[in-house]
Design a protein that fits this description.
The complex is a heterotrimer of chains A (269), B (316) and C (470). Chain A has 269 residues and is of the alpha+beta class. Chain A is built from 5 helices and 12 strands. In chain A, strands 1, 2, 3, 4, 11 and 12 form a 6-stranded antiparallel β-sheet that branches. Chain A has a 4-stranded antiparallel β-sheet with strand order 9-8-7-10. Chain A is globular and about 60 Å long. Chain A starts with a strand and ends with a strand. Chain B is mostly helical and 316 residues long. Chain B has one domain. Chain C has 470 residues and is α+β, with helices and mostly antiparallel strands. Chain C folds into 3 domains: 294 residues, no CATH class; 95 residues, Rossmann fold; 61 residues, Dna Ligase, domain 1 (2-Layer Sandwich). In chain C, strand 8 and strand 9 form a beta hairpin. The chains are: A alpha+beta (269), B mainly alpha (316), C alpha+beta (470). Chains B and C meet through helix 1, helix 5 and helix 6 of B and helix 9, strand 7 and strand 9 of C.
Chain lengths: 269, 316, 470
């Protein structure tokens, strides 16, 4: 599938800030499931910093913008050819040991309810089928409902609520997987939603679980599937915060507000 | 040098000078209160607190403006950021942060003042009279300044120390002169009277300028002579023009050393030019209080320009 | 004090390194000693060298007690320590490069993967990064104890930001000022070039993108930190700026510091703040101490950070057990300095042994430091041992245990005169283009009679440490 992306994030500050520094994971991962045809990231008046590929295989690029400023725009445009690998992250180069993804973090900590959920779904062996069952269990337990949870909602809170969005699904799946002894991580990316009946925004998130013999395999509880050629993978981390496509800090007293628009479409051949 | 280091040096100097002013204010108030006036002694203390800008805070904490309370407030009170104890504490903290930018002698002088102050605080108040407090403060302030002048390397750090001293002293001299305004304001009939002259003399004493004034001017003490001495006479070490000249000197050294001038230099030159062309009559035509208020504002702007150009770290 | 090795007296005779000190002490009347002690304290206060005990409150200007009786090594004794410490520092760095790279030692089964990759101190964010010259830990502090003429044990390694080196320098400075004659009579190897070697070491690991003389800075958490004195002292002696996070900012590919003349590029940061606080964009988002974007600059080769983020995984108390294995694996050598035998309470067999012998052992928290949260079995009451047993059983993975070592003693000035007190030693090994060790270190002494805890937070003092030139 040939997907085109137009992703615009605008930051507004109610008072001028002195400078903004950002760290981007906004470049599609390099693996057999996707091939970049063209890709561009621009930041208003931004000065690009050093770029590198980190141990998890993500392309990281720093940016800085000199103030005083009250607004900046980060724009991502490009086209990617995607292939359906049934969720398997084949041909992805990374050096971080999967064992690093067993520790929990605040939003992915398993409380007794999550441990219970994991135990009921997991079964005896850490197989691909068990991972599927975990993903289904999370999808069953947390109904997709936008607007009820926030960026800081934890997996435990979302489960107690029984509702949430893709971030909550991913956090909950990571929590139950790790509680079952399976390394798991958060993945951020894009999804061609809408016409194909996929749920969630075009800026999407899901989880990857380490399956011995297969490597990292993606699971998207929100759409009860494994990522296919409607998905574009950007980067990963222990949780949403670590995997965020844009992390930034503004220096100055101004309050930040933000406006995001993402369009992912089938590109004209 | 690091902007933050420059900032610490600049503020260390400002706090030392400010401590000295707090002590001088105390002395002015105590002297003036020794003679009877139309309103009794309380009025003088009130005006003094107004000049020090802490009347409100004082009223909240102590209520009665009696000498003992004022002494506590202006000397020991750590809730009053301009008390001698607060200023010396802040000066020492700034010095500790940039300990290595100071010579042992300067650190010693500041640290000794701080340690002695702690001992003073522990003494029963009956053993610490006002003249001891003011003498103590002047002595240590002089030791620190002397150590700075005698031992500090003449680099940009020295310029920031001296800038801090100059700008703070200009501000404080203006405020001390203004105390007279508050004292005199309600009683125009006293102008030129014995009381008026006594108060002016007290002011001179408080600035350790009593004898210098007589050497320079001779004859009667008049408001005009004193205003000239404290505002426009470049021989007077505390006059506004001396302070602003000194500030300009060090700003010039900085611009030469760094190979570029900033807004601070142009503001400094403008302020100095204004003072140089001024006559005593102009001051009284404008109104002493009005003139001083304007000067304090402009001097403050120069301080802000120094901050923006050197201390904030935002200069490109 | 039988059963403990006394470094000065072998029975009635004086061991050679201390030969001249016997005369020195005998010639010093009590009054002179007291005067000198007061003089030393005044000097320390004057310089401003104080130590605030972390989390204890109280007087922030407290002095660490300084004992004037020096601790002495012969050149030959030192030569062995020198080789052993450098060997260990090299192995620890090889380990760090390996575990953030291919992880050969894990693949070879020489250390459990869990211990490395699930370690709290392992920084996934720097996996795949090889810092300049392949050095993660540039200042390695090795804590050593002695139990006999030739028996030294490594108590622990400090690969992050070992503190205390300012005491090594100040102790020497003060001894030289007070007792110049001693230094004329004994040929004592100098330590005062440490700051210069440190500066050279830091400059030698400047990033590739740096051309010309690298700009080195020390990054401190601020003047409220208990080690602030040391930070400013070292910055001063090295002639480099002492910066706080707010003095630095990231722009483009580099880190800059705010100066009165505008931004100045920084090439090497000797940081004295923890990994978690370095960069809110990478680690703790609430950090006010760090520099946003610093890790991106570091990882793309725009700046060097010393010690490199992630170095802490090598000095973890559980990883410590495997250091001899690292020496064999990476260097193909036998360890010159031995580890103290250590029981991992996370292992069932070890835990069983530890619980059975609790009253004889020293039990420490895996991540603890400063002598807090530990049990010294033989020095504890039955009630203390019982209380500790509960904590140990509740969370065995958090503890390791070691035999109570018969720490050597050296003569120390005490109220009644001179008496033996237990000591340890921390030399500071510098690793950059070269591996260097100044002949000396920080000797800590337990001033309480019979005490084996030398931590300054627990009533320990410090001594000047001499290495005699051969």
């Amino acid at each position: 599938m040939l997907l085109s992306v137009d992703h615009v994030t605008r930051y507004f500050y109610d008072q001028p800030v002195r400078a903004v520094v950002q760290s981007h994971r906004l470049t599609p991962s390099v693996f057999e499931g996707q091939k970049v045809l063209d890709w561009q990231v621009t930041v208003t008046d931004g000065l690009p910093g050093g770029a590198f590929r980190d141990g998890a295989g993500d392309r990281v690029q720093g940016w800085s913008v000199q103030g005083p400023l009250t607004e900046i725009e980060v724009r991502v445009t490009g086209r990617v050819e995607t292939f359906d690998l049934a969720g398997v992250l084949r041909g992805h180069r990374e050096s971080v040991s999967p064992l690093c993804y067993l520790d929990d973090t605040m939003p992915t900590r398993a409380d007794t309810a999550l441990v219970e959920l994991a135990r009921n779904a997991m079964g005896e062996e850490a197989t691909l089928a068990a991972a599927h069952r975990l993903s289904d269990a999370v999808a069953d337990a947390i109904r997709w409902t936008p607007g009820v949870t926030e960026a800081c909602t934890t997996a435990a809170e979302a489960l107690a609520l029984g509702e949430g969005v893709c971030q909550d699904h991913a956090h909950a799946l990571i929590a139950v997987a790790r509680a079952s002894g399976l390394p798991a991580r958060y993945v951020s990316g894009y999804l061609m939603s809408g016409s194909e009946g996929a749920t969630g925004d075009a800026a999407h998130a899901w989880a990857e679980i380490w399956i011995e013999g297969l490597g990292w395999v993606g699971f998207d509880p929100t759409n009860r599937c494994c990522p296919d050629d409607r998905y574009i993978r950007l980067g990963s981390g222990m949780d949403a915060q670590e995997a965020a496509p844009i992390r930034g800090v503004a220096r100055g007293a101004g309050q930040e507000s933000l406006d995001v628009s993402v369009a992912v479409q089938l590109a004209e051949q | 040098m690091l902007s933050r280091t420059a900032d610490n040096l600049y503020w260390l100097a400002r706090y030392m000078e400010r401590a000295e002013t707090a002590a001088r204010l105390l002395e002015v108030g105590a002297r003036i209160s020794l003679i009877p006036s139309a309103h009794g002694y309380r009025n003088e203390w009130d005006s003094l607190l107004l000049a020090a800008g802490t009347a409100h805070a004082f009223a909240q904490k102590y209520k009665d403006p009696v000498q003992r309370n004022i002494e506590s407030h202006l000397f020991f009170d750590l809730d009053n950021p301009t008390s001698v104890a607060s200023c010396i504490g802040s000066a020492r903290e700034n010095a500790r942060i940039v300990r290595t930018a100071l010579t042992t002698q300067v650190w010693d002088a500041i640290n000794t003042a701080f340690q002695e102050l702690r001992q003073l605080e522990r003494l029963p108040r009956s053993e610490v009279d006002l003249s001891r407090m003011t003498d103590w403060t002047m002595r240590h302030a002089a030791q620190v300044r002397g150590a700075i002048d005698a031992t500090q390397l003449r680099n940009d750090g020295w310029d920031f120390l001296k800038l801090g001293y100059a700008l703070e002293r200009a501000d404080n001299t203006a405020r001390l002169i203004d105390v007279k305004y508050y004292v005199l304001l309600p009683q125009l009939e006293f102008v030129g009277s014995e009381l008026d002259n006594y108060q002016w003399t007290t002011l001179l004493r408080a600035m350790s300028s009593h004898r210098a004034f007589h050497w320079a001017y001779g004859g009667d003490v008049t408001a005009k002579k004193i205003a000239h001495f404290l505002i426009l006479n470049p021989q007077c070490p505390r006059s506004l023009i001396t302070c602003i000249e000194s500030a300009n000197q060090h700003l010039d050294r900085l611009s030469r050393g760094y190979g570029r001038a900033t807004d601070a230099q142009s503001q400094g030159r403008k302020l100095l030019a204004g003072l140089s062309e001024l006559h005593t009559d102009d001051v009284f035509d404008e109104g002493l209080h009005e003139f001083l208020t304007r000067f304090i504002g402009e001097n403050g702007n120069l301080g802000a320009a120094v901050h923006d150009s050197y201390l904030s770290g935002d200069i490109r | 004090m039988t059963g403990y090795f006394n470094e000065m007296y072998d029975g009635a005779s004086v061991r050679p390194p201390y030969a001249r000190l016997g005369d020195w002490v005998n010639a010093m009347p009590a009054e002179l000693r007291q005067m000198k002690q007061a003089e030393a304290e005044a000097l320390f206060r004057r310089i401003g060298i104080t130590f605030a005990v972390y989390g204890e409150g109280g007087d922030p200007d407290r002095l660490i007690p300084f004992d004037m009786f020096p601790r002495v090594f012969t050149g030959a004794e030192w030569a062995r320590l020198d080789r052993g410490v450098k060997q260990r520092a090299r192995a620890l760095n090889a380990f760090l490069v390996d575990v953030y790279g291919r992880g050969e030692i894990v693949r070879a089964g020489r250390i459990p993967a869990r211990l490395v990759y699930q370690n709290d101190a392992y920084e996934k964010a720097v996996a795949g990064i090889v810092p300049p010259k392949g050095v993660y830990s540039h200042i390695v502090g090795i804590d050593l104890v002695r139990t006999g003429p030739d028996e030294f044990f490594v108590l622990e390694d400090n690969c992050r930001t070992p503190s205390g080196v300012s005491y090594m320098l100040e102790n020497r400075e003060i001894m030289m000022r007070m007792f110049p004659a001693l230094f004329r009579e004994n040929r004592i190897a100098p330590v005062e070039n440490y700051p210069e070697i440190l500066r050279r070491t830091l400059a030698s690991v400047a990033p590739k993108k740096c051309n010309g003389e690298p700009t080195v800075v020390i990054l401190t958490p601020g003047h409220f930190n208990s080690a602030y004195y040391e930070h400013s002292f070292l910055a001063d002696l090295m002639g480099v700026e002492l910066v706080e996070g707010q003095d630095l900012f990231v722009e483009g590919e580099f880190v800059w510091m705010r100066t009165t003349e505008g931004p100045r590029r920084v090439d090497v940061i000797y940081r004295r703040i923890d990994d978690a606080f370095i960069d809110p964009l990478c680690f703790r988002p609430d950090s006010m101490l760090g520099v946003p974007g610093l890790m991106d600059v570091y990882r793309s080769g725009g700046v060097s950070i010393c010690s490199a983020p992630g170095a802490g995984v090598a000095d973890d108390k559980a990883v410590y057990t495997y250091v001899p294995e690292m020496i064999r694996f990476y260097l193909g050598e036998e360890p010159i300095l031995n580890n103290v035998p250590t029981w991992q309470c996370s292992k069932a067999d070890d835990l069983k042994y530890v619980l059975e012998h609790l009253a004889e052992l020293v039990v420490k928290e895996v991540h603890g430091s400063g002598g807090y949260g530990m049990l010294v079995g033989p020095k504890s009451t039955a009630a203390q041992v019982a209380a500790f047993r509960e904590r140990l059983i509740a969370d065995p993975g958090n503890y390791i245990a070691q035999p109570t070592l018969a720490l050597s003693t050296t003569p120390t000035f005490v109220e009644e005169g001179i008496a033996p007190r237990h000591v340890d030693l921390r030399p500071y090994c510098l690793v950059g283009e070269r591996v260097e060790l100044v002949p000396g270190g920080l000797t800590r002494v337990a001033l309480t009679e019979g005490s084996l805890v030398v931590n300054s937070s627990q009533g320990g003092g410090v001594k000047d440490t001499w290495v005699l030139a051969e």
